[in-house]
Design brief:
Shape: extended
Largest sheet: none
Number of helices: 8
Order of helices and strands: HHHHHHHH
Radius of gyration: 25 Å
Strand content: under 5%
Distance between the termini: 14 Å
Length: about 210
């Protein structure tokens, strides 16, 4: 029963959402909006579970004084302090909560993305080694696009920006749409496997 009941709920909800998508009826639309409200409520409980998990993991790390336990202390302090500021003082435009976001979170995000740029450059260097015909083509096109995106490229070859725009709008866009179609088909297949009870990973295996 512990497995059959969740499978039945997944099947009924999945079939119901598929049917309502193809029936543009006011009752169907109201049902969809109601389900969205339920999703918000479920998401709140998921956030509570996530916060509990965060505290359990980091408190255990601090108790055992594992490597990097000082960062766990900073993480817990930041969570509690931010929650206190948001609840006690408020989240207005000129509030301390907004300042925490603007002067701490945003610079940290910018730092993370700037570090990712170096990893991307390293991965591009490894990928652009002309070992095969496909890698050579990728290398040539990448060099043309990068050269045409800087001011000196337009001065050397005035026709280059238009050619790069053609590459981005047609070959690149076609490849992106092909990837998105593949991802969409994979999502449909996975959803059907969950609805039909073939995929049971969310039940903890089996």
């Amino acid at each position: 029963m512990k497995r059959q009941f969740p499978l039945a709920i997944a099947f009924i909800c999945g079939i119901g959402m598929i049917i309502q998508f193809f029936i543009p009826h006011p009752v169907s639309q109201r049902t969809y909006q109601e389900v969205l409200q339920w999703q918000i409520i479920v998401g709140i409980f998921m956030a509570i579970i996530a916060i509990r998990s965060l505290f359990v993991v980091h408190i255990d790390k601090i108790k055992r004084k594992k490597e990097g336990w000082g960062y766990s202390f900073i993480t817990l302090f930041a969570v509690l302090f931010t929650a206190f500021v948001g609840i006690r003082i408020g989240i207005g435009e000129d509030s301390l909560f907004n300042d925490l976001y603007a002067y701490i979170i945003v610079p940290m995000q910018s730092t993370m993305f700037s570090l990712l740029a170096f990893y991307m450059a390293s991965a591009a260097y490894r990928a652009f080694k002309a070992r095969t015909a496909q890698a050579t083509l990728l290398l040539v096109v990448a060099l043309i696009v990068m050269f045409g995106r800087v001011p000196i490229g337009e001065k050397v070859a005035p026709w280059l920006p238009a050619f790069i725009e053609w590459i981005l709008m047609y070959p690149n866009m076609a490849a992106q749409r092909g990837i998105l179609l593949g991802v969409g088909l994979g999502m449909i297949a996975t959803s059907l496997k969950i609805i039909l009870g073939i995929e049971r990973g969310y039940l903890g295996g089996g």
